[in-house]
Amino acid sequence: MKKDFGDSISNKVYEYRVLAKMTQLDLAKEVGVSKQTILVMEKGNYVPSSLLAFRIANFFKVDVNDIFTYVKGIDQHDV
Questions:
Q1: pTM value?
Q2: 1, part of any domain
Q3: DSSP codes of every residue in the chain
Q4: Domain count, the chain
């Protein structure tokens, strides 16, 4: 059985998109996904692939770690 450690990825896609004065559809077209993908990502309900994360960071000309942050769940040694 696969154990869920509660790890996640938080993001600042919304903040970068708004600062760039873009709609979700604008960003989606630029990075090759649907508007729905951007919507659920901004809500924190979708973790993008590494490739998509890098596309978004590259589009905004920032490091991927400026937009996406790993949030550690429970410590694996505590399980």
A1: 0.85
A2: no
A3: -------EEEE-HHHHHHHTT--HHHHHHHHTS-HHHHHHHHTTS-PPPHHHHHHHHHHHTS-HHHHEEEE--S-GGG-
A4: 1
